[in-house]
């Protein structure tokens, strides 16, 4: 049912966070919220969508949790649990932050969990991604990811990891993982790993919101400001990334008048604040790259220099691929292609897509068509696939070809 699906994507993380605060158990909270959505699927087609769908889900999940506690607990525990769950206006928790989803984010990013488990669990509980979507992002089978999520939640329960933002002295130890997760939530929203739409606006909005919360919590951390600047600058272009007919529009072809000028200005100001601190980190450098793109025409030599710095700070095949794109703008597509051909990025459509574009620019149409086919076979997003198919048709004498 589309209405339930939309509410799930927009409200799942908030509902799980609220129920986790009430129950003190991530697994029980998720089970209660899933029960509530199952009830919504059964009732809403007949009863209609309630005026406040998200509130209905939270209330229904809470009631289901109360019922379960009453069935499973002893008499004294039943009354105590029910009283806790039915307090109408719980006083705010003391501490640095009172945001439920931010507390859940820090819970998922506890050092006791393996880094990959932290990211996967946060994408599930805070971002509301399905297990299949997370498995796609990690390039593993869905069953494998389901087992990882079960183990991670079991670790939280067994290790008695508290549902709270750590004390201020402990925040820096968690920061790297938290920033990585927020960035990944935004990445999934910016270009959905699967489905018909290019963008998941709910995830983009949630990542920006969490970025703002983190900046308020830790205003003296340059990487926090850098991440927020990065998110704002990329988000500012959302309206221009898709045409009126739903087609993907590359950055170079976007109508800049459709960019959100307020977000651009805010992001650029944050970049300037970071630069004044003189302590560059990966998110600050990525934000600086996006700031350069925000000032037309793009200074590609400066972009290459920034990617050189980013490779030194946080080397990865994706960073190297993006640097190759910038080099192609400075030194020509042949120079970029030489760099791309030296990279290994298996099971990711970006490498063959970039290679195809460089081959197209060099007039090597047959090779470009083959590379586009490889990219199409790996792309999970329908809008991206359609874009790649149009580009392949441009270089294919027959106007197409099999992927």
UniProtKB/TrEMBL annotation:
The UniProt record lists the DUF6596 domain at 174-274
Enumerate the UniProt keywords alphabetically: Sigma factor, Transcription, Transcription regulation
Can you give the residue ranges of the RNA polymerase sigma-70 region domain?
Answer: 8-73
User: Per its UniProt record, what SUPFAM superfamilies does this chain match?
Assistant: Sigma2 domain of RNA polymerase sigma factors (SSF88946), Sigma3 and sigma4 domains of RNA polymerase sigma factors (SSF88659)
BP term (GO), one: DNA-templated transcription initiation
- Which GO molecular function annotations are given, in alphabetical order? DNA binding; sigma factor activity
Residue ranges constituting the RNA polymerase sigma factor 70 region 4 type domain according to the UniProt record: 105-155
What's the domain of life for this entry? Bacteria
Report any Pfam family annotated for this entry. Sigma70_r4_2
Q: Which family does it belong to?
A: Belongs to the sigma-70 factor family. ECF subfamily.
Q: What is this protein called?
A: RNA polymerase, sigma subunit, ECF family
Species this protein is from: Geodermatophilus saharensis
């Amino acid at each position: 049912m589309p209405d339930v699906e939309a509410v799930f994507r927009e409200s799942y993380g908030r509902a799980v966070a609220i129920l986790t605060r009430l129950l003190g158990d991530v697994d029980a909270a998720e089970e209660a919220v899933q029960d509530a959505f199952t009830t919504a699927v059964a009732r809403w087609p007949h009863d209609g969508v309630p005026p406040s769908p998200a509130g209905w889900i939270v209330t229904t999940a809470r009631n289901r949790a109360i019922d379960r506690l009453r069935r499973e607990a002893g008499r004294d525990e039943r009354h105590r649990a029910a009283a806790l769950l039915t307090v109408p206006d719980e006083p705010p928790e003391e501490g640095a932050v009172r945001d439920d989803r931010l507390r859940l984010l820090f819970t998922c990013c506890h050092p006791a969990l393996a880094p990959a488990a932290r990211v996967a669990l946060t994408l599930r509980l805070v971002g509301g991604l399905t297990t299949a979507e997370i498995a796609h992002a990690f390039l593993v089978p869905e069953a494998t990811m389901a087992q990882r999520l079960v183990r991670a939640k079991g670790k939280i329960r067994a290790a008695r990891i508290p549902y709270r933002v750590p004390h201020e002295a402990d925040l820096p130890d968690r920061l790297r993982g938290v920033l990585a997760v927020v960035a990944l939530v935004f990445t999934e929203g910016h270009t959905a790993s699967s489905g018909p739409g290019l963008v998941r606006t709910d995830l983009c909005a949630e990542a920006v919101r969490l970025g703002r919360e983190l900046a308020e919590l830790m205003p003296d951390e340059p990487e926090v400001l850098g991440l927020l600047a990065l998110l704002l600058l990329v988000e500012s272009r959302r309206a221009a990334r898709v045409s009126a007919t739903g087609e993907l529009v590359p950055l170079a072809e976007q109508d800049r008048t459709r960019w959100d000028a307020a977000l651009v200005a805010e992001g650029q100001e944050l970049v300037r604040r970071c630069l004044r601190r003189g302590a560059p980190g990966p998110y600050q450098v990525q934000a600086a790259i996006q700031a350069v793109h925000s000032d037309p025409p793009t200074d590609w030599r400066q972009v290459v220099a920034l990617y050189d710095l980013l490779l030194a700070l946080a080397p990865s095949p994706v960073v190297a691929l993006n640097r190759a794109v910038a080099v192609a703008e400075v030194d020509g597509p042949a120079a970029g292609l030489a760099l791309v051909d030296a990279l290994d990025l298996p099971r990711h459509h970006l490498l063959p897509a970039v290679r195809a574009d460089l081959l197209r620019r060099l007039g090597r149409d047959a090779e470009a068509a083959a590379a586009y086919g490889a990219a199409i076979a790996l792309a999970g997003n329908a809008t991206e696939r359609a874009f790649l198919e149009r580009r392949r048709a441009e270089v294919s004498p027959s106007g197409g070809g099999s992927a």
